[in-house]
Amino acid sequence: MLRLSQRVIGFSISLILIVPIVLIMVMSNIAPNSSKLAFAQMLASSPTAVGDVNSSANVTPGTLSASNGSPSSISLTLNGSDRTATYTLPITVDDQTGSGNGWGLTITSTTFSFSGSNALSTPVTRTLSTGATKITGVAVVCAGPGTCTDPSNSVSYSNFTVPAASTAPTAVQFFNAAVDTGLGDFTTTPTFQVSLPANVFAGTYSSTLTISITSGP
User: Fold this and answer.
1) Count of other CB atoms within 10 angstroms of residue 99
2) Are residues 120 and 191 in the same domain?
3) Is residue 210 included in any domain, yes or no?
4) What's the whole-model pTM score?
5) Residue 40 lies in a domain
6) I need a labelling partner for 145 at 20 to 30 A (CA). Which of 46, 49, 94, 155 fits?
7) Across all residues in the chain, what is the average pLDDT?
8) pLDDT level of residue 45 (50, 70, 90 thresholds)
9) Residues 21 and 80 in one domain
C-alpha cells in the first residue's frame, strides 16, 4: 500500500509539470501570428504620400458708396418758449472694397430759411441761426445680407454743430469707420436737433444737407 501511494503522488506531479509546458508551447505559436497581424495592419493604415497641391482664391475688390433716404419731418407749434425739434436721416453705406481702409461721412448745409411776405406785404426771407442744427448721435446697424465688421467711430457728439450758411461752407466729418472696420453694408442714421427760439417767425423753413463719403477714417 505504501508503494502504490508513492506512484499516485508521482503521477500527479508529472501532470502538473506537463500542463505549463503545453501552455508555453501554445502561446509561443500564437504570439508570432499576433505580431505579424499587427504589423500588417500598421502597414495597411499608413498613408501614402501623393504630393502637395496648391489652391488659390482671387478676391476682387468692389466699391465704396453711400446713398441717403428721406428725412423725417418736423412740425412745431410756437408756445412762447425756446424749442428744439429733432429729425433723422437714414444713410446707406456700402463698403465692398475689402481694403480695410475705413471710411468717413462728411456733412455741410445751407441755413434754414423761407421766403414770404411780412405784414406790409413786403417780400422777406426769414432764416434760422447758422448754428441751429446739431447732430446728437448716430445709430448704425448691419444692413446685410452678408456679414459685417461694425465701424469703430471716433466722432464725439457732445456739441456737434452742422456747418451752415447761405452758401454751404466746408464740410466736416460726422461719422467714421477706423482702419479694418466698417466692412459690409450698413444703415447709419444720424439724429438732428434744430433749435427754434420763441421769437422765430412762423413759416415753412428748408435747408439743403450735402453728405459725402470718403475713403479712410
Assistant:
1) 16
2) yes
3) yes
4) 0.73
5) no
6) 155
7) 83
8) low
9) no
Phi first, then psi, for residue 34 (nearest 5°) are: -65, -40
Alpha carbons 188 and 197: distance in angstroms, whole number: 29
**Are residues 68 and 162 part of one domain?**
yes
Average pLDDT for residues 59-78, to the nearest whole number?
90
Domains held by the chain: number: 2
- For residue 44, give the 3-state DSSP assignment: helix
Chain position carrying cell 500598421: 42
Looking at the fold, whether 118 and 165 belong to one and the same domain comes out as yes
Bridge partners, 75 (sequence order): none
Strand-pair partners of 67? 92
In a domain, 42, yes or no: no
Instruction: State the pLDDT at residue 166.
Output: 95
Q: Which residues pair with 196 in a beta bridge?
A: 83
* Whether 157 contacts 135, CB under 8 Å: yes
Neighbours of 39 (CB within 10 A): 10
CA distance 194 to 172: 18
Q: What distance in Å separates the CA atoms of residue 64 and residue 186, rounded to the nearest whole number? A: 12
**Residue 204 in grid coordinates:** 415753412
Q: For residue range 177-206, what is the model confidence (pLDDT) as tens digits?
A: 999 999 999 999 999 999 999 999 999 999
